[in-house]
Amino acid sequence: MGFLVMILTAVVVVHVYLWRRLVRASTTPGSRLRRVLTWTLVVLAALMVVTMAGSRISGVEVVRVVAWPGYLWLALMFYLFVFGLVAEVPRAIAAFALARGRRTAAGTPPEDRAQDGPATGAGDGPDGGPGTGAVDAVPMDAVPIDASVLARTASGETPAVSHCAVSGPAASGSAASEIATAGTAARGSVSPGRSAGEGPGAGAPAMDRRLFVSRTASAVVAAGALATVGYGVTRALGDPVIERVPVRLPRLDPRMSGLRIAAVSDIHLGPLTGRGHTERIVRMINGLRADVVTIVGDLVDGTVAELGRLATPLRSLESRYGAYFVTGNHEYYTAEGPQEWIEELRSLGVRPLRNERVEITHGGAVLDLAGVNDLGGVPSGDGPDLDKALGGRDANRPVVLLAHQPVQVAQAAAHGVDLQLSGHTHGGQMAPFNLLVTLQQPVVAGLASVPRAGGGDTQVYVTRGAGFWGPPVRVGAPPEITLIELRA
What we know:
- The chain is of the alpha/beta class.
- It has 13 helices and twelve strands.
- The strands form two sheets. The chain has a six-stranded mixed β-sheet. A six-stranded mixed β-sheet has the order 6-7-8-9-11-10.
């Protein structure tokens, strides 16, 4: 329940942010475009929630109807949010520049703004007396104005001073002032956002610039997100990358040097994958001619009844010493639990390692291959047990451990494991999400090592997985099948 609440909260927060930045800032109030985009965003948010909830409560065929648009929007929403955050910097710079320009225009002295001719002040009159600048000393109600002046002013004309019913310098200045006052009253009050003293329409260009900046930023954000998701789809649905990784084990018998272990994880058979997804992975693994094949968890996202036909190509896996499987956290997400898949895999010729080990004999030397259950089985009492998997073995032999989550390497090091093979992280799947994965897992992808208490290191290799979870999108983390070659 806590996880669901967290997801719903994140969905609401992100969609509100996208509405404010991409819809409200780029459209005018009350416009049809704003209404259409707002409702589109609401529908997409609801579709995404239904998709994620439906994977738990509905059959695969029902989920398939909404899974593609729902998960694709999840990916697009993620990258709209990411690109939107990146765009905040240039957006803030542009807003600052526009605001500074408006403040500069509003603070310009009147004599700099007047372009119609030089103003005359005190002492500029014909007799050296007060000119138009002396109008401030004359009460406005003391100067009668011809009604035609106001009429012409209201119509947009500029009446001559001679139409005033007064004469003389002071009267001339007063008339000019009244004309200006009347013209302002006739044309209406200053529009919002326009500073006093600015010319007609002075506020409009500034508003147009703000709207232009917002629309430009929104277009860049949308284009970047669409291009990224499009690229990510091609990577996720394309062939996995073959990573050939040599690993040296100090305790490995030289006679076993060159042993090849194919490792694949996170195949994630589910509503967005077909039988062809499994067939391609099997074909690529068989092409490696591995001595041992290992499936390191998260094989499925559903029940045997829903996905059994998608898993049947695993029967064709080829290797010298067999194919082995350990559970991942997703095997525990169905109501039936992992046991039905354990039996299904046995029938397909893949041996599950349930907190147990087997001996791999090669070239007259022996290596222990152990496997432990995933941490997702802890609540149901089916969690990892390294004491059971490794207890009583010959400590002089090297041991390779299959454990779905990299975080289990700390326990593996304490038990003297030489090499741990893991998955779970997908390499982050969609960058920059890989930065968040580091908060939970010690290794996101690739080979790393952890010091052992008794000396030496426990190495851990984390494969990026051959499938995807949720959106069929991979950015910065292409799908992977790994070929580990052990060397003495």
